[in-house]
Amino acid sequence: MAAAVSTRISSLTEGRGLVFGCDYNPEQWDRSVWPEDVRLMQEAGIGLVAINIFGWSSINPAKGVWDFAALDEIIGLLHEGGIRVNLGTGTASPAPWLTARHPEILPVGEDGTVFHPGGRQAYCPSSPVFRAYAAELVTRVADRYGDHPAVALWHVSNELGCHNALCYCDASAEAFRGWLRARYADIDALNRAWGTTFWSQRYGAFDEVRPPAQALSLRNPGQVLDFQRFSSDEQLALYRAEAEILRARSDRPVTTNFMVTAHIRNLDYWTWASDMDLIANDHYLDRRLDDARGELSFAADLTRGLAGGAPWLLMETSTGAVNWQPYNLAKAPGELRRNVVAHIARGADGICFFQWRASTQGAEKYHSALLPHAGEDSAQWRESVELGGILDRLGELAGTEVVADAALLFSWESWWAAEGEGRPSEGLEYLQQVHAAHAALADAGITADVVRPGGALDRYRLLIVPALHLISDADAAAIARAVENGATAVITFFSGIVDEEDRVRTGGYPGAFRELLGIRSEEFAPLLPGQTVALTDGTTASTWSERLTTTGAEIVASYVDGPAAGGPAITRRRHGGGEAWYLASQPSRDDYRRLIADIAASADVAPQPGAGRDVEIVRRAGESGSYLFIINHGVSDIEITATGRDLVTGAPTTGTVPAGAVRIIKEDA
Ligand code: GAL
Question: How far is the CA of 294 from the centre of ligand 1 (A)?
């Protein structure tokens, strides 16, 4: 359990079942609309409302001018209506007067482009000027509302680092040098860590170092990796500065909304999680992916991992289409419910939507909302109300935790290192490898926790380690120890190659796992897009191959053709009480499922009966009982064997889950 996850999500709106909430931007509406908003929120069962997220220019319209009248009024109205507030500190986007007065706070891209105001988040995270003004704003807001009975939660900024994670301006350069001084103390240590003798990059002093802005050729990977680490730390520092101000003035829990999602990779949330009083995530279906729903499941599992297994809050999601993808698809009938239930199945104790009422102006006017442009007389609104009722009826499962015997190891640092410039193949995308492994587990009916390398592994019988390129010796040793103690580990290609300084381990790949796996790989032989290789077990694989020999492992399958023809492609080695498997290529989705199912069976990890590619089945359990979530994403009805009470209808379960339907069953003891 992450030490600092100290707030039960359900305590935010005690007595109302699971949390049902939304972002609300009353400043976009005339005051006359507000009472109606509160009435409709009550009708839908909304218990928690995020406000003041983008409130800076409303409450602080000019330097030194403060106007809290509207915010006072709306907090008062919500309070009278019995609705609790998730209060934004308001720092998410600087007011225009600030950037006009201090253009030096604007962020700069890697090619030197200055990003102008007019959108949002137009500030350099390291800017001392921005930080000073933000601190003043947070102080004013906390002083005013820190004890207000309506305030249930502090919402620091908004999606920190969503747009401005990487800034290359002079203030960032100065802060980067400070971060490097603290990490390396002397410049020779930095030179060693970055391997700067290469291409005459040796530094004589910290003052010579700059962020890795656009260069003529490939950049120094150590510098790029440290800049990623620094940039994540700078965003965390913004959070910490605000949290400190809030905690000195208010006893309410503090958090910020993470972006555990496929298109954001600049924040290492493993290093953030313990600063949060509860873990909150924003998640939208990403229709640009082949398997948007699979990504949702992975993101939810990873969010739970950040919460150390404890329940977490879905701080933002959408009822229907978003407006920031090339094709913003409406949800199919029942899809909203399936999405919401998937988040809850995987540990969410609350679901909040962006946003309450669809805007009529501004960049997000075509984004869906709980209350659409069409108004109350709409299917979307009726669905919102219905959803509120369902969340209400699921209240008793709050606080229960997801049951999982398997773990998938995930690392943002490794993501950064694996996808650096000059890698063996552009076809090797870290997240794709992680998603493929997660999908193989899910397709095989196995629920996995997502854990950090170095996290506690002892409770898992099965460990999946996809493409974990960068790993420390200590974290690799922990995996070997888990295997010795009886776990089965499946390690896939490109894992264990470099250490924390991005330095390749020599003597044969994969250095960190060579002994554990009983193999020695001499050369990578990546495949072209669309190219496949046949394996001797009758399967086909893609993306990667390599030339390896075994030094103690048993060969499970070899390459029939391709650049490593005749050599091992899948190996297995007994080690202590467990087994270590190596996959040197990317199995097709079905082959991956079969392989994981077989390995899980031999590791004594039982699948959920009936679960598969179209049927998601996950169990949560705790003091109040055991709850089985069944989500039928398919087009045929299914029969399940569980017995118990359907938590939504209250009736005994019939065993049938129609196509597209969900069931949440309180299992008979
Ligand atoms: C999030 C953001 C919200 C809203 C939403 C739209 O990234 O926090 O303010 O923009 O996306 O999907």
Answer: 21
234 neighbors 175 (Cβ within 8 angstroms): yes
**Domain boundaries in the chain?**
406-602, 615-667
pLDDT at residue 156, rounded to an integer = 98
Q: Which residue's CA is the nearest one to ligand 1's atom 5? A: 354
Rounded to whole angstroms, the Cα distance separating 148 from 540 reads 61
Among 354, 368, 370, residue to substitute to test ligand 1 (most atoms within 8 Å of Cβ):
354
CB count within 10 Å of CB 14 equals: 11
Gap between the Cα atoms of 424 and 516, Å rounded = 24
Q: Which residues contact 339 (CB under 8 A, 6 or more apart)?
A: 285, 293, 296, 317, 331
Ligand 1 lining (C-beta closer than 6 Å) = 158-159, 162, 282, 284, 316, 322, 354, 364, 367
- CATH for 615-667 is 2.60.40.1180
Contact yes or no for 495/465 (Cβ under 8 A): yes
Distance CA 275, CA 279 (A): 9
Q: Please give the CATH superfamily to which domain 406-602 belongs.
A: Class I glutamine amidotransferase (GATase) domain (3.40.50.880)
Tell me which DSSP letter residue 449 carries: E
Cα–ligand 1 centroid distance for 354 (angstroms): 7
Q: What is the pLDDT of residue 3?
A: 43
Ligand 1: which atom is nearest the Cα of residue 322? 12
The candidate with the shortest Cα–Cα distance to 21, out of 37, 45, 54, is: 45
Q: Cα(416)–Cα(427) distance, rounded to whole angstroms?
A: 15
Residue type, 479: I
Exposed/middle/buried for residue 612 (C-beta within 10 Å: 0-12, 13-18, 19+): middle
pLDDT at site 7: 87
Helix spans in 354-472 (H): 379-393, 412-418, 430-443
pLDDT at 273: 98
Residue 356 Cα to ligand 1 middle (Å): 12
Give the residue numbers marked as catalytic.
Answer: 159, 316
To test ligand 1's pocket by mutation, which of 159, 259, 368 has the most ligand atoms within 8 angstroms of CB?
159
- For the CA of 324, the closest atom of ligand 1 is 12
Gap from CA of 12 to ligand 1 centroid (Å): 22
As a whole number of angstroms, the distance between CA 261 and CA 428 comes to 19
450 Cα: distance to centroid of ligand 1 (angstroms): 25
User: What is the pLDDT at residue 6?
Assistant: 79
Beta bridge partners of 665: 628, 646
Enumerate residue ranges in the chain where pLDDT < 50: 1-3
Helix, strand, or coil (residue 546): strand
Atom of ligand 1 nearest to the CA of 318: 12
Q: Whose CA is nearest to atom 12 of ligand 1?
A: 322
